[in-house]
Design brief:
The protein is of the alpha+beta class. It folds into two domains: 28 residues, no CATH class; 115 residues, HIT family, subunit A. It has a five-stranded antiparallel β-sheet. α3 packs across α4. The longest helix is centred in the middle third of the chain and has 22 residues. The chain is globular and about 35 Å long. The N and C termini lie far apart (39 Å). The N terminus is likely disordered. The structure holds adenosine monophosphate (AMP).
């Protein structure tokens, strides 16, 4: 999809171009939901989707996203935000059950991908670094195995 610009829409102002591009360009996460980009999938229902973060801060670092594309988490409708967190809870429970961390932490940042998402980060020991950007080495094979373990433990919220 070409980026909207003056050559495509002569006379368009910069701010309109920016809004238009946000609207017409599918985020990388939407492409993952649509199966256009592969992922280590964990769970999905009709409104939410979950998969392993490709740059894990810890083994089992998982992202939870709404299928409807919205950039800023706190622009979600109240009900959508609440339901996203309930879905995230079901995934966190699956992580807890599959990987037995001390607990699963939650981070929201959103500066890299403009599609609202919640990071779920299993914490295995007190001294573990949990800041985004601290990457641990996990092979593709192990990512497959971890995703399958969490997926197997996942139960949809009642
Ligand atoms: P942020 O927007 O700062 O909350 O970070 C976005 C997160 O998405 C980062 O932790 C990336 O590693 C992760 N990410 C980006 N592209 C992919 C992808 N194709 N599959 C899985 N995770 C991704």
């Amino acid at each position: 999809m070409p980026r909207a610009g003056p050559e495509l829409f002569p006379g368009m102002t910069d701010s309109v171009i920016s809004v238009t591009n946000t609207t017409i360009m599918a985020s990388i996460f939407t492409k993952i939901i649509n199966g256009e980009i592969p992922c280590y999938k964990i769970a999905e229902n009709d409104r939410f989707f979950s998969f392993l973060d490709i740059n894990p801060v810890s083994r089992g670092h998982t992202l939870v996203i709404p299928k409807k594309e919205t950039d800023y988490l706190f622009d979600l409708e109240d009900r959508e935000l609440a339901d996203l967190m309930v879905f995230a809870k079901s995934v966190a429970r699956a992580i807890d059950s599959a990987l037995s961390p001390m607990r699963t932490g939650v981070i929201v940042d959103g500066r890299e991908v403009p599609h609202a998402h919640v990071h779920l980060i299993p914490i295995f020991k007190d001294e573990q670094k949990t800041a985004l950007g601290h990457k641990v080495d996990v092979s593709g094979e192990e990512m497959e195995r971890i995703a399958a373990q969490i997926a197997k433990a996942w139960e949809p919220s009642p």
